[in-house]
Specification:
The structure is a homodimer of 164-residue chains. With 164 residues, chain A is mainly alpha-helical. Helix content of chain A is 66%, strand content 7%. Chain A binds a DNA duplex (30 and 30 nucleotides) through helix 5.
DNA sequence: CCAAACAATCTCGACATCAAGATTCTTGAC
DNA sequence: GTCAAGAATCTTGATGTCGAGATTGTTTGG
């Protein structure tokens, strides 16, 4: 292994204090959690250039990648972004204020709503995506492509494991 | 690759909508973020058995693994847990209320404070650790040990990459 | 066709977090 | 010794999220 990091120190400390417990799982799982927090910060930085918050990008990008006509129900957005329905109501409200989305009635279900990306929202999210990926490729360049693919595959397996 | 997951769908959608952008970095980085959120939920579940919140465990475990006499400064706890100083003040307040820690004056620096784990706090965090690791080993069992070690190593590399 | 179960969205209050700044104390240069 | 710079902690106000429940509309079994 290369230079020790924070997680190596945490694991070493636990082994000293609790030699009766096998903490080796932390080498993978704690590292994922900590790395995710670092990635959040990096993303926040990347979006700041475009005056976007991370949560705004999360919603706008879900609409963008849905393809034309760039509209999804709040429920669908909840599923895509892993937040609660109350949170999504709040997010959509603020995105409407900023002029990035519009709320329209669902013609087929009077309970339903469609959240639609505006032209302004689309331009913004398109630019932010490019910026984000430049940063992400930079970060990921620390891994050669073969290894990156192996890691992606392992993470896919883990995701299935934790969800069941 | 095994069965496609949410990230595979997201990447495929982006490739359809933005064929001009290379989104392959998401296979690793988005998966890390999403997996971290799933892990948070799993941890929350594990701690609920012991009446602990995740943030409580984060603080108590930092104190516990520091070893005897189980005390650290707020500043040190901030560094260990990746939160701001204001957050830590609040957390320590509430842990004092629950009787899991005590605040004592630092004898060498009158600005300083030492946050000390109580016997009750120690019992609780020790039990929660065992529970947490049982769950984590279960999740990680989806990967054979060799692969897990490779992933840990790659994540260590990525952490260094994102921090610089 | 009615009632009950179900579904989609929104409302509301509690709560945890952050960022910036205030407070109190320490240290080092002169 | 004193003063300015720095350090450790706490305070405050704004913000975003969650969870539970309310509202409105749809579906289905009898």
């Amino acid at each position: 292994m290369s230079t020790p990091d924070e997680v190596d120190e945490v694991v070493a400390a636990w082994q000293r204090e609790r030699p009766d417990v096998d903490v080796s799982a932390m080498h993978v799982l704690s590292r994922i959690s900590r790395l995710a927090r670092h990635l959040d910060r990096a993303r926040k930085q990347a979006f700041a250039t475009h005056g976007l918050e991370t949560w705004e990008f999360d919603v706008l990008s879900a609409l963008r990648r849905a393809g034309k006509p760039y509209q999804l129900s709040p429920g669908r957005l909840v599923a895509e972004t892993m937040v609660t329905s109350g949170t999504m109501t709040n997010r959509v409200d603020r995105l409407v204020e900023r002029g990035f989305v519009e709320r329209r009635a669902d013609p087929d279900d009077r309970r339903g709503v469609r959240v639609c990306l505006t032209a302004s929202g689309r331009r913004t999210v398109d630019a932010a995506l490019v910026e984000l990926l430049e940063h992400e490729r930079e970060i990921l360049s620390a891994l050669d492509p073969t290894r990156a693919a192996q890691v992606a595959d392992a993470l896919r397996t883990l995701t299935r494991s934790v969800r069941s």
